[in-house]
Amino acid sequence: MKLIVGSLLLAASVSAIPAKPVMLGTSGLRANLKTRQAKVIPVVVGGPQDTFNPNSVTAAVGDIVQFQFSNGNHTATQSTLEAPCTPLNGGVNSGHIPFKDGQTDVGTFSMVVSSTDPMFMFCATGPHCQEGQVMMINPTGPQQVLDFVKAAQSTQKSVDGTAIAGGTTSQITLANAAFVPAPPKDPAAGGGAPPAVPPAAPPAADPAAPPAAEGNATAAANSTAATKGKSKRSPILLAY
Ligand SMILES: *[C@@H]1O[C@H](CO)[C@@H](O)[C@H](O)[C@H]1NC(C)=O
Ligand SMILES: *[C@@H]1O[C@H](CO)[C@@H](O)[C@H](O)[C@H]1NC(C)=O
Ligand SMILES: *[C@@H]1O[C@H](CO)[C@@H](O)[C@H](O)[C@H]1NC(C)=O
């Protein structure tokens, strides 16, 4: 009975997002159900800053990392610690997925995690990788994430990916996204109604990108310090 309920839940969680089904052999499926359920792990790409949020996640085999693309024009592209801003041959690549002011849908790229080895991802747009727009899946520890960011910042330029690979592109509604977009840069430009702001997205993923405090460096510095003082924990839950 337990196994049947588990199967239904697994099916529900996997079909809840438009991604390829998790392919597991019968024994693999049983083992997986005994221990835990596959999770969908949101990662916000871009927004007020060129970042991945969070920039480190822990995922089990079968879990789905769902990159949700906020403001800008970003990619989630696999690389290596040695060449942080260059696509790994045969690696995962979302392609460039933009988000513009007023958009009510959010582009996503969902990839099924097939190994618990550390995986390195960067944004291949312009200088974003040199600005530190990188993230890791299953780092050996916090230090490896820092090392990866530093290595990325040390590069001169990025190499763009080619074909979309290793995942599925789709869309979700903005109300279901794990972020609130940056305010429109030029409210007059959109002409139409303001974007449908989701009132209160469920706090599944920490959307806590600090608000852009452009044009007031003093206030920004102070607010950064204040945020640091509170020391927000990473939203990654190791819940089973
Ligand atoms: C996103 O960036 C890529 C690469 O620079 C570019 O080819 C594409 O046109 C851009 N898309 C949008 C909508 O700006
Ligand atoms: C910058 O922010 C501080 C604190 O919020 C405020 O007192 C000050 O007037 C602001 N300066 C400008 C130029 O907006
Ligand atoms: C920034 O913080 C410092 C020290 O806490 C304070 O003296 C200063 O007034 C603050 N500035 C603004 C603009 O809030």
Question: In the CATH scheme, what's the topology name of the domain at 38-182?
Answer: Immunoglobulin-like
CATH 2nd-level architecture of the domain at 38-182: Sandwich
The helix-and-strand class reads alpha+beta
Radius of gyration over all CA atoms, rounded: 18 Å
Fraction of residues in H or I helices:
10-25%
Please give the largest β-sheet: 5 strands, mixed
User: Considering the protein shown, what is the CATH homologous superfamily of the domain at 38-182?
Assistant: Cupredoxins -  blue copper proteins
Number of strands: 11
Name of the CATH class of the domain at 38-182: Mainly Beta
Bound molecules: 2-acetamido-2-deoxy-beta-D-glucopyranose
Continuous helix count: 5
What gap, in angstroms, lies between the N and C termini? 19 Å
Mean pLDDT: 78
Succession of helices and strands: HHEEEEEEEEEEHEHH
What strand line-up does the widest sheet have? 2-1-4-8-11
Overall form: globular
Low-confidence stretches: 1-22, 204-240
InterPro entries: Cupredoxin (IPR008972), Ser-rich/MCO-related (IPR052953)
Biased composition (Pro residues): 195-210
Signal peptide: 1-16
Protein name: Cupredoxin
What does this structure look like?
The chain is an alpha+beta fold and 240 residues long. The chain has a domain at 38-182: Immunoglobulin-like. Helices cover 22% and strands 20% of the residues. It has five helices and eleven strands, in the order ααββββββββββαβαα. The chain has helices spanning 2-15, 26-35, 142-153, 187-190, 217-230; strands at residues 40-45, 52-53, 56-57, 64-69, 72-74, 77-79, 97-99, 105-112, 119-122, 134-137, 168-173. The strands form three sheets. A five-stranded mixed beta sheet has the order 2-1-4-8-11, with no helix packed on it. A hairpin with a 6-residue loop joins β1 and β2. The longest helix is centred in the N-terminal third of the chain and has 14 residues, at 2-15. The radius of gyration is 18 Å and the shape is globular. Residues 1-22 and 204-240 have low confidence and may be disordered. The site of one 2-acetamido-2-deoxy-beta-D-glucopyranose has 3 residues, from α5. One 2-acetamido-2-deoxy-beta-D-glucopyranose binds at residues 218-219, 222.
